[in-house]
Each structure stands twice: as C-alpha cells, then as structure tokens.
Write a structure and sequence with these properties.
Structural class: alpha+beta
Radius of gyration: 36 Å
Length: 948
C-alpha cells in the first residue's frame, strides 16, 4: 500500500470519526477556531483602520483632484506632497498686500468649492456652546469622503445648516432643531447630520458659502455692539477638467502665482526629484514612515498570541485519542502498524484543524463586519474600506491547521505506543509524571525572567520578548506539577470540589493545556493592561493643570461685569454640582492694569516675587552643575527633587487668575479652604491679621518674602496717570508671611494669597476677579452649556472655567483587553469542562448508580470549570507582569538618558498594576465560568450499558 493510499484511508477514518462524535469534534473545532477568530478579526480591523495614502487624500480633499491654499508667501517652490515650501523672494510680501484669489491659480477649465471657518457661539438644547462653523458646500459631490451625510438632507439656502453627530449629541439638538448664532442673532435650521470620516469626534456646523460670514459682517458693520467674525483663511477643493487630475506642471504654475497645492495625482505618482526644484535646491529629506523593527510591546503580545494558539487545542486530541483506543486497536488487528495508528490520529488533527481554521477565519470576518460600526465609533474614524489581505488570512488559517497537527502529535505518539491488547480492553495503564520536565521548566522560568529583566535594563526589546516567551514556556512546563498539587488541596473540601480537584490532577493531559491556554491569553492582556496603566500614570504626572481638581471658577473681564457676579453665582449653583459656598478671588497689580493697557510697549506695571538663592530656594536641576547632579540621581530621587518647592515652578507656571505671571492673588480664609484645601486656623488667622499666606515656601527667607514692583502708568490711564505723574517708580517691599506646608506649593495658579489691606498698604491695585467653587464632580457638556446660557441671560461678561483632566481616559481599550481575556478564559474553561464530561461519562454513570444526588453532576461541572479558569488566570497574571515590568524598564532607561541630558525633563516611569482588570479576571470571570457550567449541565443522566 502506498503512502498516499494509507493517508487517504487515515483521512477517511478521521472524517468518519469526527462525524460520529459530533460533540467532541465541535469542541475541538471551537478550540482551534477561537484564537483563529481573534487573530483574523484583529488583522482585518488593523488593516482597515490603517489609512492608505489614497484614503488620507480622500479625507483631506474629498472627491476633488487637489487642495489649493494660500500660505501668504508669494511665488514659491513646494515639495511633492505640499508639506514643505519656500518663497522665491527674499523679501516677504507686504502685510497690506491684497489676499490672493486662489481661483486665478486653478488649471484651465477646473472648478472648485471653497472652505472657510469661523469660531462662533451658538445656542443649544441646553444653553450655549462654542464651536466652529464652516462655510462649505457639503452638498457638492467634491465633498464626498471629506464630509458625508448621515441623516436628513444637505443645507439649501441661507437659513439652513448641518451639524456633526458629535455636536448634536453634546448639544442636545437633533435634525429639525433651530440654533441661533450669538452676536448677529442669525437663526438656522439643522437639516441634517453629517460626519467627518477621519475624525468622528469633531464638533462643527456646516453652512453654504455666504450663509454665515457675510451676513455677520453686515450686521457688525451696522451694529457696533456686534463683534465682526474672525474668519479663517479660505481653501479650495479643485476638480480638473480632464480625467488626469492636476499634474505636476500645473502645480508648479500655481506655485508661481503664490498657491500651495496638494494634488492627488502628484502625491500618488510623484515626479522624479530632478523635476522638483525645491528638492534640487534643498535635497531630499524623506523620512521613514515606520520603524524597521516592531515595538517591544507588539512583539511580546504577538509572541504570546501565537503561543496561545498552539496551546488551546491540546487537550481535545488527547481525550479524542483515548476515546478512540478501541478503534485504533482494531487498526492494529487488521495489520496496521504504529505509523498507521499515528496517521489516523494526525489525520484527525488535520481534518479538525482545517475545519477550525476555516470556521475561525469566516467567523472573524463575519464578526468584524457585524461589529464594524461599533469598532469605528471606538476608533474615532471610519474605515476607508474593509481591507482583506488574502496572504495574511491564509497564513492565519495555516496556523490553525498546523495547530491541529501539533496538538494531535503527542496523542498520536502515545496512541501508537500502546499495545493492541491495551487498546481493545480500554485499560489506561499508569504513567508516572516526568520528573525532568518540572526541573527544566523551573530553570526556563528563572532564565526567562532574568533575560526579560536584563533586556529591559539594557534597552533591548528582542530580549524582552524572547525572555517573556521563555519564562511563559517554563511556567507551562511546570503546569502539570501545579495541577497535580491541586488534588492535595481537596482533602477537607465537600464532595464536588474535592472530585473536581482530583479529576483535574488525575487528567493532567487534559487540564494542563487548557490552563496553559488561559494563562497565555490572560498573560497577554495583563501585560498590555499593565503597560497602558503605567503610561497613563506617567501622563498624569507630567500634566500641569490650570485649576485645582474638582474646581470651577467664575471670572470677569471688566469692571462692569463684576456687578453681574451675584446672578452668575446663582447660575453655577443651580446648574453645577457645587458644594459649599464660593470663595471670592481678586487680582492684584502695580501701575496700570496690563489686562487693559496691553497694546503699547511699557504701558503697564509689573510685579515679581523674588526667589532667594541657596539651598531650599534655588533648584539644583536648573543651575550650573545640574547635569553632573542628574547623572547621580535615580528616577525617584529626581522626581522628589522636581516636586520640591524650589523646582516646582522652574519649568512653567500657570497664570490662572489673571495674575500676570506673579501668581499672587487677593483672598481670604474661604479661598484657602475652598480652592487650596488648606483648612488651617493659623493660616486663616494670619490672613485676617493682614499677613499674606505663602504657598511655595521656596520664596520665603526667615519668614519674609521680597516683592519687587514697577509702578508704570499708561498715558491712556487718565485717572491713575494724574495721580502718579512722572517716570515709572520701582519699589522693593519685604513682608512677613505665613508659610504653608511644602505640599501646597503644587496649588495650580496661586503662589501667594495676600489680604487686600496689605496690597493697598504697599501701593498695589486690586479688583474682584471672580469666585471659586468646589464641585463634587466635573461638569458635563449639558451643565456647562446651561451655565453659559444663564450667564448670557444675566448680561454676559462673566465666564466659567472648569478643571480639565490630563486627557480623555481611554478606558475602552482596557475593557477590550479584559473582555478578550475573559472570553478566552470562559471558552477554554467551558471546552475543558465539556471534554471532562465526555471523558468521564463512565465515572458519572457510576456516581449516579450508587445514589449520588442529582445536583452533584451540576456542581461537579461548575467546580471543574472554576478550577481550570482560576488556575489559568492566576498563573497568567504572574506571567503577564514579567514583560510589562521589563518594557517599563526600557522606558525608564530611555527616560533617565533624556533626563541626564536635560535635567529639568521628567524621568518618572511608574509601574502601575491594573487591579480592576486583574480583579475582574481573577474573581468575576472564574466565578462566571463555574456558574455557567453548572447552569448549562443537565442534572439527570441516562444510564447506559458499559461497553466491553
């Protein structure tokens, strides 16, 4: 019999066996298909979300052939893609020169539509909000791809407008609503909802050209109370007369007229460098669009994903081969030898692996199509198209097929070594666990961890990835021993958990691969989640807030607006989650007010709080010898020094309360308690006694501060100029201060709080700036809009500012990682429980025969699932922390190098464990797996005749 004939027979036997045992075959297919599904969905999503050059151009210019701009530099030369240009004249154009009419630079026969934006304040369903209005004929076919209609109709006429879905969602408006442009009080009907495919989060309004800016200008010309629009530059989307688009010679011709052009044809089919004058003059400056090697995080996660695919199908074939022992024994009785037995088992892997690969790829594509809108919304952009790369999908399917063969290889070898007598009688025999494998695994675990840590310390990402995989493989080798130890834990437990633990220990060949698969999935998710949590903490540390946390400030812009503060306070208290009474805060300045007299040079005064020199005052990281000091510091020592009062405001300060950079304000004890969160009777008593409270102790020496003031008055400041004629007066005042604890130096926007009488005593001027509120939570868009509307109704001139976070939290990514690991955990645990049931039917039959309660079958399945899931999650959590820590060590190394070159740069590189994610995986998911397994298991069992 030829080799092919033998394999044909083996494949036929494997196919029939798969059809006969449909339940077990379905479980095997599910094991292989699950990771293939995930990899397929990830591949298609990544490829579809990554914009091609054509899709980027469509997002920029819609269906047009080119985008024309006026950079205001006159005749020029430009690069092929328009990202660089240079004027042909050494003399810049005059500011009085008329703006270029870009239509004169169009190719002959071309047509175009203009785009011009203007910032505006409009009414909403909740109140008032600020947004951008674009005069852009979005109904024109040239706009397709740049702006797309989602609902309703395009605007037709001066009184109609369309809005992005994000704007409608935040404003409480809908298609058919009316909105009013504040100032000129122009009313518009929202006729449709649109979206910008490359940025779904943009909040904007779109009207036809001439519908907003021109009427606004006309109203402002007749009514001096209406400010004219601050319109932006006009750009044009241009369609050439022919099908060839805008050519490079036509681009150069437009350059001579002063237009900068981004041409679709030129970008996609660029001319040689010899035909690009700017490149000939400056040389080519092409930068690589990507790194030649993948990031350490991506390499590590991909390596773990491949390992997971290899592990997940392992237990099924071991059970399948054991269930088919009698059939394999019959092959031996018919003259088949060991290689034929191996061929039959491997053919099962080939058949089921092939089916699993096809099902996984098809299901991955289907799920991506079904959930595409949700994926696009979370990504914040539309896919240009559903990008399918056949070679990559075939590779994914091939991995699934090879996985089936690899998973069947060990059972095939074991089955071929059994004697015909053992196979026919169904005896399992007794095999002692390998004593070498756990030792090798422990060594591999230790070596892998050491290599990963060394890779992190030395900055070599390949060592991090390799060491992490080796450590996980070492832990994998130890899993049979760990599973074997589980049986000893159940000695004093009730019947069901005791049987579940002993079953897991007795059937290590089935339990260990499932635990390993869960471990691999959880390890990858924990690694990425830990890395992301650490990066978020680092970003939070580097963020400098404008306001204190959970604070809202009402502020005025002129003296007349101060009278409306009582009504403004009522608006805040009614519409926002304010807690307690507000605290008033006043500005303080010397000479003429720079907020009013800022147009002329040297037309207003100034104040400077002088920082003494010496230890505790001068920041050692910003002086001579700073690099030598930084070279000796650890990241934590540098962080502590950067947060000391001496260094805290050396990089930049926030002039939040109109303090002009001095960060000195006038206030009382209420400001200390409400904003500074300093509830200190001694500090309150000092303010009441006329003593300033200093929040940054680096400015105090011997309990005193030095304030230098320049009392300079503008000629336009008639009132104060008459009182202070002559040249500017310079004064230096030393004042006793109450010095707060060092932690209050981090208070945003305030360095010192001065009583009003102290300011007046040294010749300074004060004026009420506004009020500060403490809120229980940040205000929502609706609350801010309601408050803004109430402030306008009160007369305007009073504005509200809320504390903003360091960023919009991308919790969705953490949720996706948790869901992915949770789904794999549930799937692997459920599949393993199903295999355990199929493998232990005889034991369950015996259990029922001796009178065990009906609920035992349910509880046994639940605890079997719980044991597998919990063991895999706990091991995976430990395995996932290894690459995450190593990757952060690479970041630490890079941060220290940057810090030692620039000592004022942060080197803080925290390692933050995502306890929420780990808690969900370690507690919720295993309990859910056990509960589902118990609920979905039939408690009754039909007694069957025992074969043989």
């Amino acid at each position: 019999m030829s080799v092919f004939t033998g394999w044909r027979a083996a494949l036929r036997i494997a196919r029939r066996d798969a059809m006969r045992a449909k339940g077990r075959s379905a479980l095997v297919v599910a094991m292989i298909a699950l990771p293939v599904l995930g990899v397929t969905a990830a591949d298609v999503t990544y490829r579809s979300a990554t914009q091609t050059e054509t899709e980027k151009l469509t997002a920029e210019m819609g269906a047009a052939d080119a985008l024309f701009k006026d950079p205001g530099s006159g005749p020029m030369e430009q690069s092929v893609n328009g990202d660089n240009y240079g004027s042909l004249s050494d003399t810049p154009p005059s500011e009085d020169a008329p703006a270029l009419d870009l239509r004169t630079a169009f190719p002959q026969g071309a047509r175009g539509i203009s785009i011009q934006s203007v910032p505006a304040s409009v009414t909403t369903g909740y109140g008032i909000t600020d947004t951008d209005i674009f005069e852009f004929q979005v109904s024109d076919r040239l706009a397709r791809g740049k702006i797309d209609l989602v609902d309703g109709t395009f605007p037709h006429g001066p009184g109609e407008i369309v809005a992005t879905e994000s704007f409608l969602k935040s404003s409480g408006l809908h298609v058919g609503s009316r909105t009013t442009l504040r100032g000129p009080e122009q009313k518009y009907t929202i006729t449709g909802a649109v979206e910008q495919p490359d940025d779904l989060e943009v909040k904007a309004l779109y009207a036809d050209p001439g519908a907003v800016i021109a009427p606004w200008k006309a109203t402002a010309a007749h009514d001096k109370k209406v400010l004219p629009p601050n319109a932006g530059e006009t750009t044009w989307l241009v369609k050439a007369s022919g099908a060839q688009g805008v050519s490079w010679p036509e681009v150069m011709a437009a350059n001579k007229k002063g237009a900068l052009v981004v041409s679709r044809q030129v970008v996609l089919d660029p001319p040689p460098d010899s035909e690009v004058p700017l490149t000939r003059r400056l040389g080519s400056n092409t930068m690589s669009s990507g790194s030649t090697e993948l990031s350490a995080a991506l390499v590590t996660v991909v390596a773990m994903a491949v390992l997971e695919i290899v592990l997940l199908a392992g237990p099924a074939f071991a059970v399948g081969a054991r269930r088919s022992r009698r059939q394999l024994g019959l092959v031996g009785t018919c003259g088949g030898d060991r290689r034929h037995v191996r061929a039959v088992v491997l053919s099962g892997g080939l058949v089921l692996g092939g089916v699993g690969a096809v099902v996984g790829v098809a299901a991955g594509l289907l799920l991506t199509v079904v959930f595409r809108p949700m994926i696009e919304d979370q990504a914040g952009q539309r896919f240009g198209s559903l990008s399918l790369h056949p070679k990559e999908l075939l590779a994914v399917a091939a991995i699934g097929l090879v996985t089936g063969l690899l998973a069947a290889f060990a059972p095939a070898v074991v089955a071929s070594r059994q004697s015909v007598l053992e196979s026919l009688t169904g005896r399992r025999g007794v095999r002692r666990s390998s004593r070498v494998l756990p030792v090798v695994g422990s060594c591999a675990l230790a070596v892998g961890v050491a290599v990963a840590v060394y890779g992190g310390v030395s900055g070599r990402s390949t060592l991090v990835a390799g060491g992490s995989v080796v450590a996980e493989l070492g832990l994998l080798a130890c899993i049979p021993v760990i599973v074997g130890l589980l049986g000893r834990l159940g000695r004093r437990l009730p019947l069901s958990p005791r049987m579940a633990l002993r079953d897991a220990a007795r059937n290590r060949g089935r339990t260990a691969p499932a635990v390993a698969a869960i471990m691999a999935a959880v390890a990858g998710s924990v690694a990425v989640a830990t890395f992301m949590s650490s990066k978020m903490a680092e970003s939070d540390y580097e963020y400098t807030p404008m306001l204190g946390e959970k604070s809202v400030v009402l502020y005025t812009t002129d003296e007349k607006s101060v009278e409306r503060l009582p009504l403004a306070r009522a608006a805040v208290e009614q519409n926002m989650a304010a807690t307690g009474r507000p605290a008033d805060v006043s500005r303080v300045w010397a000479g003429s007010d720079c907020n009013v007299y800022y147009e002329d040079d040297d037309s207003c005064g100034s104040m400077e709080l002088v920082k003494p020199t010496g230890k505790g005052h001068t920041c050692p990281l910003n002086t001579k010898g700073a690099k030598e000091l930084a070279a000796r510091l650890t990241a934590e020592e540098h962080r502590s020094m950067m947060h000391s009062p001496a260094c805290l405001d050396e990089r930049y300060t926030m002039g939040t309360f109109g303090s002009g950079g001095s960060n000195i304000v006038v206030g009382d004890a209420a400001l200390l308690k409400t904003y500074v969160k300093l509830d200190d009777p001694a500090a309150a008593a000092a303010l009441a006694a006329g003593t300033p409270v200093l929040l940054n102790r680096a400015y105090a020496k011997d309990g005193e501060v030095t304030l230098k003031s320049v009392h300079r008055y503008s000629e336009k400041d008639k009132k104060n100029r008459a009182r202070h004629p002559g040249p500017a007066r310079r004064t230096t005042d030393r004042m006793k201060v109450y010095v707060a604890d060092a932690k209050y130096a981090e208070t945003p926007g305030i360095r010192m709080i001065m009583p009003e009488r102290s300011a007046q005593r040294i010749g300074l001027h004060t004026a009420l700036y506004g009020s500060v509120y403490s809120v229980s939570r940040p205000p929502t868009d609706a609350e801010e809009q309601r408050t803004s509307a109430a402030l306008e109704q009160a007369g305007g001139g009073v504005y509200v500012q809320a504390a903003a976070g360091s960023r919009d939290r991308e919790d969705i990514m953490m949720l996706v990682l948790t869901l992915f690991a949770g789904v794999v955990t549930l799937g692997a645990a459920a599949i393993t429980t199903g295999l355990a049931k199929a493998d232990a039917e005889a034991d369950l039959t015996t259990l029922s025969a001796v009178g065990a309660p009906l609920r035992v079958r349910r509880s046994l399945s639940g605890f079997q699932c719980l044991v597998v899931a919990l063991t895999g999650v706990l091991l995976g959590t430990g395995a996932g922390l290894v690459p995450a820590v190593a990757l952060r060590l690479i970041d630490l190394r890079n941060a220290l190098r940057e810090m030692r070159m620039s000592p004022m740069e942060s080197a803080y590189t925290p390692i933050v464990v995502p306890w929420e994610t780990i808690g969900l995986l370690a507690v919720v998911v295993p309990l859910l797996a056990g509960a589902l397994a118990a609920l979905l298991t039939r408690s009754r069992l039909t007694l069957a005749r025992r074969a043989g």
